[in-house]
Amino acid sequence: MEYPRIIHLKKIPDARGNLTAIEQNSDVPFAIRRVYWIFDVPGGERRGGHAYRKAEELIIALSGSFDVIVDNGRERDSFSLNRSYFGLYVPAGKWRELSNFSTNSIALILSSTDYDEDDYIRDYDEFESYADEN
Ligand code: TYD
Questions:
Q1: 3-class DSSP state for residue 129?
Q2: CATH number assigned to the domain comprising residue 41
Q3: 105-114: per-residue pLDDT in tens?
Q4: How much is the pTM?
């Protein structure tokens, strides 16, 4: 079974401003198919709250901070993201939810798949059955 984990991305310090880069299949354990970001999140809102059957992701707090809960159907882990050079790798088949967004935070998400609504499991009971079988 694959586990969620924090990936420390390389940070290239520079007095002119730091730089971080990500290359698929080396810095992240998948080929990057899609990139999207979540921004302008009003205070107290949550995003996510679903699982993907196939999609793997890397979630980065590009700006500000937020928490990500990752649930495998039996246990939940909570990760606080607050550095633009840390990424949370979320394997396929995990329920994940983003919350506690700081003002002006930006969540950058790299995904291994195209957007496909059929890949989503949005019902938690359905997810628990899916996690039991997989
Ligand atoms: P969704 O992943 O459901 O976000 P959340 O779980 O936080 O509500 O995405 C919200 C909507 O955005 C969804 O109905 C379709 C659209 N969307 C795209 O068109 N492309 C994408 O890559 C993503 C992630 C979402």
A1: helix
A2: 2.60.120.10
A3: 999 999 999 9
A4: 0.97
